[in-house]
Amino acid sequence: MSKRYNCRQCGKEIISDYNNPKKYCDIKCKTNYWNKHRPNGYYKKKKGSSKCKTCGVKISSTHANQKVCSSQCYERQSKWQAINRYKKHLEKSRQLLNRANSIVFVND
Ligand SMILES: [Zn+2]
Ligand SMILES: [Zn+2]
């Protein structure tokens, strides 16, 4: 079954499959529309996540939220994060202890 749609960019009529509706009449209109309407920081975000956070390998996936190249790197990253969290926790405890030691208790 097909249905009629209008191109979001130029308004031209498109006849497309009902299950697979088209929003643009061709790739040029899609590009133009995206150039005008893309959300702020869309490309920035994509650029920032194009490298694996663990090994630095370039990620070819188009998934903007992907931060690592493989499941192995994902595991490595979560381990690294756990270590970092523990280090931070230790540092905080030490600071608290230092502060506690610097408090002078006055006994009346
Ligand atoms: Zn169009
Ligand atoms: Zn990696």
Question: What does the radius of gyration come to?
Answer: 26 Å
Mean pLDDT: 83
| Overall body shape | elongated
Counting copies of identical and different chains, the oligomeric state is single chain
Helix fraction bin: 40-55%
Task: Describe the main β-sheet briefly.
Answer: 2 strands, antiparallel
Spatially, the strands of the biggest sheet line up as 1-2
List the bound ligands: zinc ion
Structural summary, described in words:
The structure is a single chain. The model has no long low-confidence stretch (mean pLDDT 83). The chain has helices at 27-37, 42-48, 71-102, and strands at 2-6, 13-17. The chain contains three helices and two strands. The chain is mainly alpha-helical and 108 residues long. The structure holds zinc ion (ZN) (2 copies). Residues 52, 54-55, 57, 68-70, 73 line the site of one zinc ion (ZN).
